[in-house]
Amino acid sequence: MKLYLCAAALCASAASALADDGGAFVPLNQLREAARGERWSEVVARYRELLDTPSGRDATVRFLYARAELELGALASAESALGDLLTDVPQHTRALALLAQVRATQAARAEGLEREALAVQARDALLAAAAAGHHVTRDLATPDGERLFPGALEDAGFVLELLRAARARTLGGGALRDPFSSPLRREAEEPPPEREVPLDLEALEAKIRAFHQELTELARAEDYAALEGRIEAFGDFLTRIGPEASAASRRLRQDGEVWLGEFRAVLAMVRLQEHVAEGNACLRAMWRAVEAEAFPEVLDGFAQLEAHCASMREAEDPAFARNAEQLLLRGRALAEKARVQVEIAALRLEVTGIVIASTAASQGAARAYDTAIVNDRILRVGDPVVTDTAHDAPHPGLRLVAIGASGTTVTFAYEGVEFLRGLGAQREE
Fold this sequence. Notes:
Blueprint: H1 7-20, H2 25-36, H3 40-49, H4 59-71, H5 75-88, H6 93-109, H7 112-132, H8 136-140, H9 143-148, H10 156-166, H11 201-220, H12 224-239, H13 247-291, H14 295-313, H15 318-346, E1 351-355, H16 357-362, E2 371-374, E3 377-379, E4 384-388, E5 393-403, E6 409-414, E7 417-422
Antiparallel strand pairs: 1-2, 2-3, 4-5, 5-6, 6-7
């Protein structure tokens, strides 16, 4: 996943380093410009020029070097650089998130128990990044995030772990901020509230803490019906903190809204899981009907699945639409198989005679070949089959493909599916 780099932070880092090391200006500036242009080989080259200077120990410079090594596929070098950086700056948010990428990439290249261990380490690094204040969910929603951590945002349990990991970064006294936002990004504006809550600052903080604790316990207990109601109650409470409130009160509301948004995201993921589970139940019922050759029931089940997926596509979260398409893709395969079988069962096929070539030849026929009389027409292998005798037009996709040597069965093919009919067999329309 592409981590968000902040030009202001890079400039601040450069200015700090230049105060002690004016000779590093050129390579440091070149490194910064190369990072912006994603010229990773150049970043590595400029970093090596800075190794013996104070600038080479700057946290942002070291982070950019580690990212460059990762982008170039040098996982061992990236891991080593991040280890050194996190030893000096344990709560470096972007370094923790980058370490998660390194571990996930290593896991993708490993096998067996090593793969599992690295995958666990990758998730642990994400949790550490969330606890340090990094906007983990934003990174996971990127294409690279979905590739490295497939299904992470749809795992309600893991999202709850992220919430718990971030608790120490929120209402702990002093300045409060969004635990999932980048430490380099600030909110542009505060939403216009409605009216003041008649509570002093201490009581207001206690009330918001109580809401958060209650929501966390409900989510942990998987009592999602109650969670939904209390989420709305929490939202109603926060709207009562009006523009007349103190700056500290408005900051408390802002943190409460961050929590509210995260719990709503968890609830949305749970709903997604419920919708997917319902769709999978429908697919299982369709598959059982296929095995029982109850093909009309398969088509009925697919109609129910289509209606269910249509409701999923109405959700604002694009994950619902993506999962709906996956359910439909699997359902269509079963429905197509059932459709062909239903249409085969409805075909009018009356086999009233079969002539085997060897028999005809023994009786003196000069040009003998296997034939069958189907719907009052003499057919050879490969001939199309007429089912509507009134119009004398071949049925689309239907052919006679084999005549049994025993002289008692005929094999037909319809849309790639072969089936037998016996001598004297009839099918009503």
